[in-house]
Specification:
Blueprint (H helix, E strand, L loop, with lengths): L10 E7 L3 E9 L5 E10 L3 E2 L2 E2 L2 H19 L5 E6 L4 E11 L9 H15 L4 E13 L2 E4 L9 E12 H13 L3 E7 H9 L2 H6 L1 E6 L4 E7 L2 E8 L3 H12 L3 H11 L12 E5 L5 E5 H26 L9 E4 L8 H9 L3 E3 L6 E2 L10 H12 L15 H11 L5
Parallel strand pairs: 1-6, 3-19, 6-11, 12-17, 17-18
Antiparallel strand pairs: 1-2, 2-3, 4-5, 7-10, 8-9, 8-10, 12-13, 13-14, 15-16
Helix pairs in contact: 1-3, 4-10, 6-7, 6-8, 8-9
The protein binds adenosine-5'-triphosphate and magnesium ion (MG).
Adenosine-5'-triphosphate (ATP) binds next to helix 6 and helix 7.
Length: 415
């Protein structure tokens, strides 16, 4: 293993704290802003409920295990990680502000942009929340809208439209404790789904309007883009775990058995399954139970429909639904469920595709599954935003100030 002192700063790592597993991915940021995968590891979650840490001690052990596995594969030790933040305690709000351009030349400088962003954030961030990202959507100078980079342009008024993404302060604090107990520093926090969006969505989809849906074990998270800007993020406390629990309670099987038959024989689109096909499973009292595969699909279908109905409701009430012209992209482990794209198309009434991790080099096969999409996305995001050279060894708690720095460094679109 490499000595800590001769560490290559281009080698970075991520942590995805999920309901069912904690994943760590180690990669190298290349000079042409791409990501090479060096190693990946995962361990079954403990001390985590609905992707939120509820037991620091237990969670830190699992984090350490996932990191160790990834280090072994990479043949490389790491001492810091980018940590994904997920779940219903995250939030996002679109906000706007207007400031006067009152310098001598009436030209927009960083000063006016910073003032506009400051005002926009102040309006929407309560004190018990941590700002994760400040993402500009567009600028308006006098009556001219749709401006991606206003610096150097002339006018009298500058308007800024931004999305501010926040997370619950206590959840962040507990995450910091668990990660540092596992022996690594935190480079930054990243909303996992925007990393996935960077990785899995094409620029054309983001421009035309698209939603990305990550269905994990305990949560379903959604982000929406339009005009190449992040317009929406949201989360629901429902996922693959609920499908497994339904199978368990209807067929009186253990959760482990139910999980196994869901993965092996499960289908979300009943009419695609033969009416005569059966599965034999042993119940807890050692009896053999025969289950019709079509019936199993009906059970799964009911819950999957409920998930997409809730997603549709969330998209409709936020106004994002009408902007998803390119449809929906599915990821997360539950995206592996057969027939899920058909249910998504039917309920959301838009084209849907399942995304696998592509666009990365190195041992890409190790992270191809949608189960790893978030951990890879969390690593891909700082690479694409050109943040890697700024990496410091000290933990950076993602305060508003840090986020503004990120914003100035990276967020003038089209540059
Ligand atoms: N082949 C499969 N068919 C059906 N479901 C599957 C399959 N493979 C994995 N899953 C489900 O995917 C879920 C795990 O996905 P993932 O690893 O994305 O979740 P997580 O990140 O741990 O959870 P969350 O994101 O909700 O916190 C489990 O519910 C599991 O049953
Ligand atoms: Mg997940």
């Amino acid at each position: 293993m490499a000595n800590k002192k001769d560490k290559d700063p281009s080698i970075i790592a991520s942590l995805d704290i999920g309901t069912s597993k904690i994943a760590c991915v180690i990669g190298r940021a290349t000079e042409d802003q791409n990501l090479e995968i060096l190693g990946a590891g995962s361990a079954l979650s403990e001390g985590v409920k609905k992707c939120t840490i509820i037991n620091i001690e237990e969670a830190s052990k699992v984090i350490a295990r996932a990191i160790e596995e990834a280090e072994l594969m990479a043949g490389q030790e790491i001492d810091s990680v980018y940590v994904g933040i997920s779940g219903i305690h995250t939030d996002g709000i679109n906000t706007k502000s207007v400031v006067a351009i009152n310098n001598k030349n009436r030209e927009v400088t960083q000063e006016e942009v910073k003032r506009a962003i400051d005002i926009a954030i102040e309006r929407v961030t309560p004190s018990d929340r941590e700002v994760l990202h400040v993402i500009p959507q567009q600028y308006v100078i006098d009556d001219q809208d749709g401006i991606k980079n206003p610096i150097g342009m002339n006018g009298t008024k500058l308007g800024a439209y931004v999305r501010v993404i926040t997370a619950n302060y206590t959840v962040i604090q507990n995450t910091i404790k668990a990660v540092s107990k596992a022996g690594v520093d935190i480079n930054d926090f990243i909303l996992g789904t925007i990393g996935e969006a960077e990785l899995l969505l094409s620029p054309e989809e983001r421009d035309l309007g698209v939603v990305l849906i990550d269905i994990g074990a305990g949560t379903t998270e959604v982000v929406g883009y339009y005009n190449d800007s992040l317009m929406f993020n949201g989360a629901l406390n429902i996922g693959g775990m609920e499908i497994t629990a339904d199978i368990s309670s209807i067929y009186k099987l253990t959760l482990q058995q139910s999980e196994k038959i869901k993965k092996m024989y499960g289908h979300a689109w009943p009419s695609a399954v033969s009416e005569t096909e059966t599965i034999e499973v042993q119940t807890v009292n050692k009896r053999i139970k025969t289950i019709k595969r079509r019936d199993l699909a009906e059970v799964i279908n009911a819950r999957v429909e409920e998930i997409f109905e809730s997603v549709r409701k969330m998209l409709t009430s936020s106004g994002m639904y009408d902007f998803a012209n390119a449809g929906a992209v599915l990821t997360g482990g539950t995206a592996l469920l057969q027939g899920i794209d058909q249910v998504a198309e039917e309920i959301l009434d838009m084209p849907c595709r399942i995304a696998f991790v592509e666009n990365v080099g190195g041992i890409a096969d190790a992270v191809k599954s949608p189960i790893y999409a978030k951990a890879v996305g969390i690593l891909y995001y700082p690479v694409k935003k050109g943040n890697i050279i700024l990496q410091s060894q000290k933990p950076k708690i993602s305060g508003t100030l840090e986020k503004l720095k990120e914003f100035f460094n990276n967020f003038f679109f089209g540059e």
